Structure formats: structure tokens, C-alpha cells
Amino acid sequence: MVTKEITKELVEQQMNSTLSYFPWGGKVIAVRQNQWGEWIADCKIPGHYSRDCDGPGGHYYRMEDADCPIRQFMVLLEYHESRFGMEPWWMTRYFEAKNDKRFYTFPEEGGFFDPDAPRSPYILAKIKATIEEHPCQWELQEMWGAFSDIPINTDDEIEKPFYFWEAGTSRFEIWHWFDNLCPNGLAVDLMGETPKNS
After folding, report:
1. 90 pairs with which residues across the strands?
2. If 88 and its partner were Cys, which of 2, 17, 29, 139 is the partner (CB 3.0–4.6 Å)?
3. Distance between CA atoms of 79 and 2, rounded to whole angstroms?
4. pLDDT tens for residues 161-183?
């Protein structure tokens, strides 16, 4: 029977299965959740790596080498119910990460959400509700970065639509929305300020 609960053991199992399809394989050596509740996996990945000291041919690392490179991934698991006689299963997606955070990959991928695309208010509300229910740091960072390009008038209102907010919305309303979704607050998580208790 397939469990619907995401555990450390499940993440390790699913990611090890994914690594088995890498050209030279790989192995999960540590799994944890970051402060946002996102699953992070440290993995030993053998294979060819280019280093300045190795010349143009790079160097081949084996799994048993003490200096075999360790790469970090953010792992997303999505449960799928049984269909057409198939057993229930987990779909695994993974993204390069560093320091327990996903790399900024949205510009290359075209963005997780195009705010200029035509959508009904109902669809916008559903997208907003999904983000509020399951806030992800990398989504909020991408949105916050885009907010810096939005013009603000002398009344502290945005002059053009921004994601879910119409032109004329107070910038403080938007700030408050971000602040509520950040575990350590907007200033620390998205603006880079040092926590007061550190």
C-alpha cells in the first residue's frame, strides 16, 4: 500500500530511484526540511566534473571517492491515486539547490506564473489561494524581485497590475501579504535583514 504521508524516508527512497537514472547513478546521503518545510536532499553524484586544475578533460569521480561531489536538490513529491488498474504512485520532481534554497531558475524556465497572461478573476484567486496554502520560498522570492519593477505613485499605490493586485492597490497591502507568508517576516526572508535575535 502506498502511503500518502511525505516522510524523510519516502523522500530518500524516491530520490534514490530518480538518481538511478543518472548516467553514473548517485546516492542520497542526507534529507531534511528547510525552514519553509521544503524537502532538501544532499546527494553524492559520481561522474565527470570540470575543474580548473584538471584541464579541459575534467576529472571522473567514483561513488567511493572521498571527494566525490555532493549536490543539493529541492525535492517535490506529488501523490497520484490509482487509475486504470495501476497502483497509486508518487511523482518526483527535483531542482538544483544551494544552502537549502532552490536556485533561481525561473528566468530560464519562462517563469512559474506570467502576470500579464489573460486570466479571469476566478483563476487569479485560485492561484493566490494555492500560494497562500503552500507558500514556497522560491516563488515568493521571484515575486518579490518582480515587485521592484512596479512603479509606485506618490500615494504609495502601484500604477500597474501586479500578479493578483489591480493598479491602485496600496504597496503596504502587498507588503503585508508577503510578510504573512514568510516564516521570519518579509524583512529577513526576502529583504536580507539580519534577525534581531541572532
Report:
1. 79
2. 2
3. 9
4. 888 888 899 999 999 999 998 88
Q: By the 8 A CB rule, do 6 and 39 touch?
A: yes
User: Distance between CA 72 and CA 24 in Å, rounded?
Assistant: 17
What pLDDT does residue 15 have? Answer: 94
* Closest by CA position to 20, among listed 101, 87, 92, 69: 92
- In angstroms, the CA 60 to CA 76 distance is 29
Q: Compute CA 9 distance to the chain's CA centroid, rounded to the nearest angstrom.
A: 20
In this structure, how many other beta carbons lie within 10 angstroms of the beta carbon of residue 32? 12
* Spatial distance between the Cα atoms of 193 and 190, rounded to a whole number of angstroms: 8
Within 10 angstroms of residue 163's Cβ, the number of other Cβ atoms is 17
Pairing label, strands 70-80, 89-98: antiparallel
